[in-house]
Design brief:
148 residues, mainly alpha, 5 helices
Length: 148
């Protein structure tokens, strides 16, 4: 006996062209909202890493006290560049999606690395923040990589 929750293919309603357009518009708006959140977070985080003293950053997170100041500042620059890449298609449609996709992959790699760093350093709040950022950035990448 089959226990499928989906209705049989023959009873699924077909969508009108207007419904398809509405779903595509909603999906696009959702992805742009998520991209904006990710871009704002990383622009702010990068700015803080560039402008705050290492002692202030160490008070917020453990790892800046364990690495060189240039590494902390370099990560700040990378975060700002990747944040700009997330919104680059808004700035110029001529660029296409490639800056967004490259930035999304870069941010996923950065988030995964920092998740491990924070988890090893027992900064559980920051580790959970990286889990949330991954949960936002991965769907953006997956949603934008599909050709239209």
């Amino acid at each position: 006996m089959s226990t499928s929750l989906a209705p049989p293919a023959s009873t699924r309603p077909t969508l009108s062209a207007a419904q398809i357009r509405n779903r595509a518009a909603f999906r696009n708006l959702t992805l742009w909202t998520l991209q904006g959140w990710v871009a704002m977070f990383f622009a702010a985080a990068g700015y803080a890493k560039l402008t705050e003293s290492i002692s202030n950053l160490t008070a917020l997170m453990n790892w800046p006290g364990m690495v060189s100041e240039s590494l902390v500042r370099g990560i700040g620059i990378v975060e700002i560049v990747l944040a700009l890449g997330m919104i680059a298609p808004l700035l110029s449609w001529k660029l296409g999606r490639w800056p967004l996709l490259v930035s999304a992959v870069g941010l996923v790699m950065l988030e995964a690395t920092m998740l491990a760093v924070h988890a090893i350093g027992l900064d559980l709040g920051l580790a959970l923040t990286n889990v949330l950022l991954l949960a936002i950035t991965i769907p953006v990448y997956l949603g934008r990589r599909v050709s239209r």
